[in-house]
Amino acid sequence: MAREAKTRLPAMAGTAAKPDRGDLDGALRRNTVKKNVAAIHIGGKLTLLQRKLSNVLLLNAYDTLLSQNVHRIDARTLCLMIGYNSNDIDSLRDALRGLAETVAEWDMLDEKGRQEWGVSALLAHARLRDGVCDYAYSPALAEKLHDPRVFALINLDIQRRFTSGHGLALYENCYRFVRTGSTGWWPLEIFRRLMGVNDSDYYRSFKHLNAKIIKPAVAEVNRSSNILVEPEFKRLGRAVAEIRFKIRENPQLAMLEIDDGQGVRREPVYERLRAQGVSDRLARQWIAEHGAEAVADKLERMQAREGVRSPVGYLRAALSDERGGETSEPAPAPGPEARAAAARGRAAAAERDAEADRRAAVRAARVARFAAVAEVARRRNPTQRDADRRLFLSQIEDELEREDFRRHGWESALNARAIFAFWEEMQPGLFDELPEMPDETA
């Protein structure tokens, strides 16, 4: 029987982004994709994998939503886009089946101001054959998904960082309100539906809802995404009746390095910068802040000049020039002491850049490993999951580390090395396809 998502869905606006991958074709190479809010505000019990899968399938199909009935994507590319590093096709089948069994419902005004209600399965069909996934949307849902008046921004690079379906659901439902600063008040019944727990008597209790859904989801959004959310509650008598989320941009977005620099590193100008002695971190920062075109222009101006002694210094000055005009290279230091001091400064800057690059590599490797652990742990049945936790706890002697694991589970940063070693032993080869883990103590 199909799962029902009966939440009434307000029409809002935004834009939707996708990972910048130079090796992908068609819609997957575009910077943005418009996604209908009705498709985001699904109250069904979608798993994390199903939510990610839904976003990627829409991204792949968006350009031809109204002109093609069937859309196709390579199964390996599909797994790559959702950050799924497993060859477990059964899990992919289950996720597709879940989308086909989940019903979306919308209630909105049409272009003439008339009330329009509709219902549709998220996918009309899905099929895996010869390493290719083909799938289709119903005509009515495809029309809504492509409606330019009603869309919100979903960043696939960010969604890959999420390890829980509730966290991703909260992010999807909050991000479109980042410019207004608040979601507005939701009755708790609506919120339960958006989180997919409306059928559970356990979460009728606000105490349980807050402890098991709201607090963990808020923590993950604030830790993993480009927004910060803070819940507020409205009471009716002594009971909490409504909830809203205050939203602001995450000031640490640059530190999060959502795509770990992979998209920026594919820009042609990135290699040209590196050839001039610009560090990886600085090259990515300049391209992200100023755009590849502007950086390439400054680089060409520099290469057209003669006698530029410090390419990094010249480019830093040129890019920081607010007028964007040509910047002369700073005059050389007049004496040997000044030149020696400048050399020491450059060496220190290079060392800092190298350290920043090392830290970024460590962070990226940890994120990838935690995602792999979360996925393999998710596939275990409840009895196995309980046994896994007990076994790991029995191997931890330090009480502080034990407490951190009790609070954060397999996301415990304090136990990261031990967690990775534990799962490498449990699932040999789990991390073989991931980047090597740099020495964190270097």
Automatic annotation (TrEMBL):
Gene Ontology molecular function: DNA-directed DNA polymerase activity
**Low complexity compositional bias, start-end:** 336-348
Name the segments for region: Disordered.
320-354
| Gene3D superfamilies reported in the protein's UniProt record | Winged helix-like DNA-binding domain superfamily/Winged helix DNA-binding domain
An annotated GO BP: DNA replication initiation
What Pfam families does the entry give? Answer: Rep3_C (PF21205), Rep3_N (PF01051)
Q: Which InterPro entries match?
A: Initiator_Rep_WH1, WH-like_DNA-bd_sf, WH_DNA-bd_sf
Looking at the record, the residues that make up the Initiator Rep protein WH1 domain are: 32-174
Similarity comment: family membership = Belongs to the initiator RepB protein family.
- What this protein is called in its record is Initiator Replication protein
Q: What is the species of this protein?
A: Limimaricola pyoseonensis
Q: What is the lineage of its organism?
A: Bacteria, Pseudomonadati, Pseudomonadota, Alphaproteobacteria, Rhodobacterales
